[in-house]
Amino acid sequence: MVIIFAESWGSVRSLALRHGDLLASNRELLALGATNLASGAFQGMAVGAGFSASSANEAAGAQSKLAGLVAAGAVLMLAVFGTHLIELIPEPVLAAAVISALLHALNPKPLLALWRLDRDQYLALLAVLAVLFFGVLHGMLIAVALSIASAIRTFSQPVVKELGELGDTRNYVDRENHTDTVVHPGVLVLRPEEPLFFASVEGVLADIKARITNRTDVKNLVLSLEESPDIDSTAAECMVDLLTVLECHQINFVIARAKDPVRAVLLKIAPDKFNEKFFWSVADAVASVTTPT
After folding, report:
1. Beta bridge partners of 221
2. Rounded to whole angstroms, how far apart are CA atoms 5 and 23?
3. Is 217 left (phi over 0), alpha (psi -120 to 50) or beta?
4. Which residues lie across from 161 on neighbouring strands?
5. Which residues, 6 or more positions from 10, have their beta carbon under 8 angstroms from its beta carbon?
6. pLDDT band for position 38 (cuts 50, 70, 90)
7. Does residue 41 carry a pLDDT above 90?
8. Is pLDDT above 80 for 17?
9. Same domain, residue pair 225 and 135
10. CATH code assigned at 175
11. Could you tell me if 78 and 87 are in contact, meaning their C-beta atoms sit under 8 angstroms apart?
């Protein structure tokens, strides 16, 4: 399943990009699943968009889906009437045909591009080495495991950025990368860089509490949740705990750029605490705590 998914999606995506075609991922995966269900019902082999077969199909000049039907018909005729012609073909000859079809894809440019971007290059290199040393199946499984471990590591070490106003633009940006930002006295504007859910929320809120504890000038906290499309029950409960802690420190708390699902969850779990705490922009949230009432 892992090999079929990875190889099929890689084949479909690479060929679509090469020819400028648009992809509908749900449609492609639905077709892949339906064909495997049909094949399984008749005790057939697993079906996938193999990279070698797809490359050979493209190299032969295929222009439409009709090419797949023609190839299927040819394979059927060969299996029924021509098995005696192919059963004695040496494996090196078959290997040479596959290598010839895939030779143009043996290009280091994708890895070099990752190195220039400084993103995922070590993960990609380890995946290549895993396939070379452990075979396709185990190599794919190792690559998937490494990807999951990398994602878990990223979410378990969340980053919280402090924001400042960029001149008079009403735009709030990361102060670490923009030293010319303006900070309003008594106002701390923070933005978690990862979505809030059970694996990340504790670390995010611990960082926020530590910043508040280490500073005595903070009277208002603005939390921008633009990176969180939704939150789970654990994150919602932790947000209630944060609000309670801020109330004990007599710090006013408002939330900026929260998506509608986030608003709905927080208003359900503690409507009395989060009512009138939401603002669509960071600038409006800051104005609400700095404007005299």
Report:
1. 188, 253
2. 15
3. alpha
4. 191
5. 51
6. very high
7. yes
8. no
9. no
10. 3.30.750.24
11. no
